[in-house]
Design goal:
6 helices; about 260 residues; alpha+beta; 11 strands; globular; single chain; Factor Xa Inhibitor; 6-stranded antiparallel sheet; Immunoglobulin-like; about 25% helix; 3-stranded mixed sheet; 2 domains
Length: about 260
């Protein structure tokens, strides 16, 4: 009799756990292929501290309903975009890996100390997101997605993701287009860095003709010019001729002096 009671209790607990798990998965039915949780789990000792930080919640949405390629990297950042001529300053960044379908939920905690430190000036904050695989862009959000952090975030926030286009036709604003083949690298290396009209924040390299070296800048995700490279080595290799010429000219000037 005692064993029957124990079995009944175990069955009841198992049923409650199963129902609770099913309710959590039904919250985002499109992502039932994702077996791992979207956000880091906290233990009992750290849960109270984590709850003190406000969080920005929302979904990445898109017209595309196909599943993302396996191994895709999803990067969602909460950034300070107050200064237009300066690269955005991320407050926190969430990175997800795996095969997802839209809508893709995200949750980004932030500290009020990060916001209150700039309370004397009007600050603007936005969500920036991109999806890539093996260094190749798949989706970007090319629209400005503002968020309110004070006194509290207004959730949820929908961030529209646009699938990149492989078209190289001119005038294709709003979508990422691959850089055409570089024809005249010395001329390209003289161009000023151009972030383009889109609002993404993607780390790239450009050749600084005044300093004679390659430096980092943040590209918007579309438009711009050809003085934009995915890696430092690609930048140095492309602009090596102009860089050597600058070094030679500087050496001659020092010799004349």
């Amino acid at each position: 009799m005692f064993s029957i009671v124990i079995l009944a209790l175990l069955s009841s607990v198992k049923a409650q756990y199963y129902n609770h798990h099913q309710q959590q998965q039904q919250q985002y039915s499109y992502n039932n292929l994702n077996l791992r949780p979207f956000h880091p789990q906290t233990n009992a000792f750290g849960a109270q501290g984590m709850q003190q930080n406000p969080r920005v919640r929302g979904n990445l949405i898109s017209d595309d309903t196909s599943m993302l390629p396996f191994g895709s990297q999803i990067v969602v950042s909460l950034a300070d975009v107050s200064l237009q001529d300066v690269a955005s300053r991320p407050l926190n960044t969430l990175v997800l890996y795996g095969s997802y379908r839209f809508p893709i939920p995200f949750e980004i905690p932030y500290s009020m100390a990060q916001v209150q430190i700039n309370s004397n000036s009007i600050r603007q904050y936005a969500i920036q997101a991109r999806i890539e695989k093996d260094g190749q862009l798949l989706y970007i959000n090319d629209q400005y997605t503002p968020v309110q952090l004070i006194p509290a975030p207004i959730n949820p926030i929908n961030v529209f993701m646009k699938k990149i286009s492989t078209s190289t036709f001119p005038g294709n604003f709003g979508t990422y287009t691959p850089r055409p083949p570089i024809m005249n690298s010395p001329y390209i290396c003289l161009q000023n860095p151009d972030i383009g009209p889109c609002k993404a924040s993607i780390e790239q390299y450009f050749f600084n003709a005044q300093l004679g070296s390659c430096q980092i800048f943040f590209w918007g995700g579309c438009g711009g010019n050809q003085n934009r490279f995915n890696s430092l080595s690609e930048c140095e290799r492309t602009c090596s001729f102009y860089r050597r010429r600058m070094i030679t000219n500087n050496a001659k000037q020092r010799w004349i002096k």
